[in-house]
């Protein structure tokens, strides 16, 4: 949270003042504004310094800080961090096992995560790339039937096998 300037810490000579009820009081000198706030038993709080003259509000400094913290907490709760989950398929995977892995991928996608699909090829399996490619494609089609997906990174072959990254549309 950024430092909020209050009362004598405000460095501008003139400020635009807003009353505690939200009414515009206009532009006035800093000392006049501080005296006005003190006469009401409140503080002069700088809301923004991005405009000239800076905007200040008359109010309770503690309550203002609390409301800012509350807003930040609400924003923090509502943000979802997406993770990259990985699902590995074996070369000799059966159709039923592909269905189970597809259900697992669906669960990850519903939680808002991205899924990296990996099929590692070892030894002689590398020579049968077409069969492996078909199995990965059938897995992706099965996931697409359960839940519409968007391909983040196309299915591509690398030294160890096949990889693709998918996410929920």
Fold blueprint:
Elements: E1 14-18, E2 24-29, H1 30-39, E3 43-48, E4 55-59, H2 61-78, E5 84-89, H3 95-110, E6 114-120, H4 129-146, E7 149-157, E8 161-168
Parallel strand pairs: 1-4, 5-6
Antiparallel strand pairs: 1-2, 3-4, 6-8, 7-8
**CATH fold descriptor of the largest domain:** Translation Initiation Factor IF3
Low-confidence parts:
none
Helix content: 25-40%
What is the assembly state of the chains in this entry?
Answer: single chain
Number of helices: 4
CATH class of the largest domain: Alpha Beta
Estimated share of beta-strand residues = 25-35%
CATH superfamily of the largest domain: Translation initiation factor 3 (IF-3), C-terminal domain
Compute the separation of the termini in Å.
Answer: 34 Å
Compressed to H and E, one letter per element, the order equals EEHEEHEHEHEE
CATH architecture of the largest domain: 2-Layer Sandwich
Number of structural units classed as domains: 2
Largest sheet: 4 strands, mixed
Mean pLDDT across residues: 88
Total beta strand runs: 8
Q: How many whole angstroms does the radius of gyration measure?
A: 30 Å
Please explain how this structure is put together.
The structure is a single chain. The chain is an alpha/beta fold and 169 residues long. It has 2 domains: 7-78, Translation initiation factor 3 (IF-3), N-terminal domain (Ubiquitin-like (UB roll)), CATH 3.10.20.80; 84-168, 2-Layer Sandwich (Translation Initiation Factor IF3), CATH 3.30.110.10. The chain has 4 helices and 8 strands. Helix 3 packs across helix 4. The radius of gyration is 30 Å and the shape is rod-shaped.
């Amino acid at each position: 949270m950024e430092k909020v300037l209050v009362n004598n810490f405000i460095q501008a000579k003139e400020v635009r003042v807003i009353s505690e009820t939200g009414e515009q009081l206009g532009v006035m000198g800093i000392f006049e504004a501080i005296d006005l706030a003190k006469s009401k038993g409140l503080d002069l709080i700088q809301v923004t310094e991005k405009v000239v003259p800076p905007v200040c509000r008359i109010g309770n400094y503690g309550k203002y800080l609390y409301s800012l913290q509350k807003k930040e907490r609400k924003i923090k709760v509502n943000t979802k961090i997406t993770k990259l989950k990985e699902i590995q398929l074996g070369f000799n995977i059966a159709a039923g096992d592909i269905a189970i892995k597809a259900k697992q991928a669906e669960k990850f996608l519903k939680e808002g995560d991205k899924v990296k699909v990996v099929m590692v090829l070892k030894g002689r399996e590398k020579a049968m790339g077409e069969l492996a490619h078909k199995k990965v494609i059938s897995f992706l089609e099965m996931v697409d039937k359960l839940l519409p997906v968007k391909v983040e990174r196309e299915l591509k072959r690398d030294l160890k096998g096949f990889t693709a990254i998918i996410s929920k549309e």
